[in-house]
Amino acid sequence: MTTNDWGSIYKEMGAKPVVNATGSVTLLGGSTPVAEVKAAMDAADSAYIPLIELEQVAGDRIAEMLGVPAAYITSGAGSALTLATAAFMAGTDDAKIEQLPDTTGMPNEILIQKRQRYWYDRCLELAGAKLVEYGDENGTTEDDLRNAITDRTAAVHQVMYEQNPVDPNVLTLEQVIAITHAAGKPVSVDAAGQIYPLENFGKYVKMGADFQCIAAKYMGAPHSTGFALGTKEVIDAISRHSFVGYETRRIRGVGRPHKIDRQEIMGVVAAVQRWMTLNHEDRLSTAEGQSQAILKPLQGIPGITAELNTNIMGHQPFGVFITVDPDVVGFTVDDLVDKLRDGDPSIWTRVQDGRLVIHVFGLGEGQAELVGNAIAKIVKG
Q1: Minimal CA–CA distance to 191: which of 288, 40, 41, 66?
Q2: N or C: which terminus of the chain has fewer CB atoms within 10 Å of its end residue's CB?
Q3: Residue ranges of the alpha helices (H) in the chain?
């Protein structure tokens, strides 16, 4: 696509396309399906197929590739969290499946460490569950978890961000699994972005967790896709709560709005196949090169510090950290975000922990240089 064609389909409707220097975020559309995924989705158009069968064989294929017991494709990682919560509460009991989100007579509490509360834990409540914190803002002990588990506990939830520094004040997943399983309860893991290194991809189920979710958008699948990994029992229960269970088994579960089409299912399978065979050294080299292109015009400018993010774990490798000295440049880092967004083209970035954090996941050809030059121009005045 030429520069003149960039975003033209949006411009024709009066909408304003943006340069995505934020990453694979939902508010900007999440992902761009890769060629292999688009080809698989086009091929899926050639015939119809019962989705209960397709979900089964597609899940089997993913489970085989990742070496886990079972998998199920969902409408995003958030969908997998909601369906898993439904499964933990109602299991495979059809009457209970139809009773949700009324959880009367069911275990309905999802335990989560106080220090692990996060933006997407809301997805755990949407089938009727109640989030219950254990530990406090200072940390968590093993006894905190033991004392929190009751007959009302449906599952214990853990969040994994392996690219971040380890928080020594929270229980590790190993501790959570040991204590929770000793009490006869399942463990749920949100690992939406833990797709690299490959040994991290699905490892939490291999460690003993009963369920984990993955966001397929990070691997070049459609933005609206993800999948659940877990034990055969949990995945079977998820399938019964899903839109497939609603339509095929005629059981009115909470998963009907979580619909996914046959093209997306085949796109996810293609994305996982590609990811498992991809030359990741080349992928990382490209991301580092884009990051260096952003950095290049920013070197030596008074009032601005720009450095390479050296992380290669998870779904967004490399990138750039930028700090601004307001006394020198005359504006704050938040002002810089606004100035970039108000430019032409509009460049979207965001501030985390007081610095501008740029990810190259969503940048197209030539856009890394564009971002670096735009920042340099603004700071220089």
Answers
A1: 66
A2: C
A3: 8-11, 35-44, 51-66, 77-90, 94-99, 142-148, 173-182, 203-207, 232-241, 243-248, 262-277, 280-295, 326-329, 333-341, 367-380
Per-residue DSSP letters for 294-319? HHGGGTT-TTEEEEE----STTS---
Distance between CA 41 and CA 241 in Å, rounded?
Answer: 25
| Residue 376 in tokens | 């340099």
Determine the Cα–Cα distance for residues 124 and 131; give it in Å rounded to an integer. 7
Rounded Cα–Cα distance for residues 175 and 39 (Å): 43
- Between the alpha carbon of residue 51 and those of residues 43, 64, 70, 223, the distances in Å are 16, 19, 17, 20
Q: Domains in the chain, please, with CATH?
A: 3-30+279-380 (3.90.1150.180), 35-277 (3.40.640.10)
Q: What angle do CA 253, 45, 13 make, to 5 degrees?
A: 85
Is this structure's pTM higher than 0.90?
A: yes
The answer to whether the CB of 210 falls within 8 A of the CB of 204 is no
- Three-state SS for 277? helix
Residue 278: DSSP 8-state = S
E strand segments, 78-225: 109-113, 130-134, 153-159, 187-190, 211-215
pLDDT digits (tens, 9 = 90+) for 118-139: 999 999 999 999 999 999 999 9
pLDDT at 1 (0 to 100): 44
Helix (H, G, I), strand (E, B) or coil at 212: strand
95-122 pLDDT per residue, tens: 999 999 999 999 999 999 999 999 999 9
- Confidence class of residue 30 from pLDDT cuts 50, 70 and 90? confident
